[in-house]
What does this fold into?
Amino acid sequence: MSTQNTAAAAHDTEQQDDSPEQRPGSSSPERPPVASARPGLAVPATASVPWANALGQLAGAVEILGYEEGLHEMLATPRREINVAVPLRRDDGRVELFKGFRVQHNVSRGPGKGGLRFHPSVDADEVRALAMLMTWKCAVVDLPYGGAKGGVGIDPAGYSERELERVTRRYTSEIMPMIGPERDIMAPDMGTSEKTMAWVMDTYSVSQGYTIPGVVTGKPLAVGGSLGRATATSRGVVHVTISALAEVGEEVTGATVAIQGFGKVGAHAASIFAEEGARVVAVSDQFGGLHNAAGIDVPRLLDHVAATGSVVGFEGADPVDNDTLLALEVDVLVPAAIDGVLDSRTAPTVRARFVVEGANGPTTADADRILAAKGVVVVPDILANAGGVVVSYFEWVQSNQTYWWDANEIEQKLADRMHSAFREVAATSRAQGITLRDAALVIGVRRVAEAHQIRGLYP
Ligand SMILES: NC(=O)C1=CN([C@@H]2O[C@H](COP(=O)(O)OP(=O)(O)OC[C@H]3O[C@@H](n4cnc5c(N)ncnc54)[C@H](OP(=O)(O)O)[C@@H]3O)[C@@H](O)[C@H]2O)C=CC1
Ligand SMILES: O=C(O)CCC(=O)C(=O)O
It folds into this structure.
């Protein structure tokens, strides 16, 4: 496989227009930086990096779309937010108190949709930013949902399963007025799992007096989960990688891949990339990473992680730290852990040709500019990791109609939706001479703004 960027050779001819030949994902020299908000809608000085980034991304899309300030403000402002206190009686009798949040950023296209995160970094701004990303993500893949997100500021590694169940049930009770299958539907995110979703579903159902599987997605199959949801985010990452490589006339077979994060997204991505014939040369978790230029034996690594809880110590590769992993010379780098890992310090070191964002918000605005200037194609989170919410949507539809699709049907529908969303974003990127991120944002933001206008909420 060539390591040259030759995207211009492989354009989707159906979608071409008369704009100058431009590689999807590369930025137009005329475009101003997107990080600053427009005058009159300044990013609050107190905004955290994720929230400032999310507002900056929206400001960039609004500028391209030429929307006026009132509409910009509507799109920037979360519809509903709830902050809750979540007390926990620990197994040893002590009491601890956690902060919990649920934010519905936008509900103009349908109910709020988005994950529940358990992580010590969770705060109001982070959840706000993630909820806004969900709004654009659901719109990019054309789901009838708005965007929402929830979180509890807890490190799940420090608590027993019984304690996490109590935290989940108390959090669910506290945010109960906001959620429901027609209002706001949760799913797993960092630090939560299908078991967490079963507890949310049970707590909600008990409060209503009957079983309501549609209040969550990403739940176990035994209580109405969908085939294919557990692997959907990762499979979506692989689908868009295949599409991005096809744009430059290349195939995933033989491509070298480095993956940061070996949780629900990263581990399945490693397996699926390997099944597709890619060479997974590096992986990591929060304790460290592994590198083997000849390729890591992923099934053996999965056994090692199941036995030890970490990738660290696996014998078939050399140790590598997380920063070094980001700087490896590979075809594809998949950040699939926390946000902000590609910033003004690490972005200059990136030698990957494609960054495919499995995580939400892994690239800061500064890093985006640095990567674009280096010619690195960034497939943005709101497209790259949308496979999870796509199959969540299929799960919700199945739960609501109580009729189940087989795995082939789900995988085919997921593949179709991911490849068509990529084609649409790439065509917009080429036509307007903007990055794939700006193109995805333009599509998502425009669909949400149209919903506001058509509904008359914004006459
Ligand atoms: N799950 C889903 O369906 C979706 C998830 N996402 C996004 O993908 C990302 C990962 O989510 P998910 O896989 O569900 O989360 P998990 O909690 O399952 O896994 C997170 C992984 O990231 C690792 N990690 C945590 N901190 C660091 C760090 N500082 N450096 C390197 N690795 C680290 C963890 O390491 P360790 O194993 O050692 O704890 C773990 O391997 C998040 O940004 C999430 O929002 C996006 C769309 C859908
Ligand atoms: O499956 C879902 O509903 C959303 C998953 C999620 O939180 C995300 O895509 O970031």
In short: Confidence is low (pLDDT under 50) at residues 1-40. The longest strand covers residues 95-106. The radius of gyration is 21 Å.
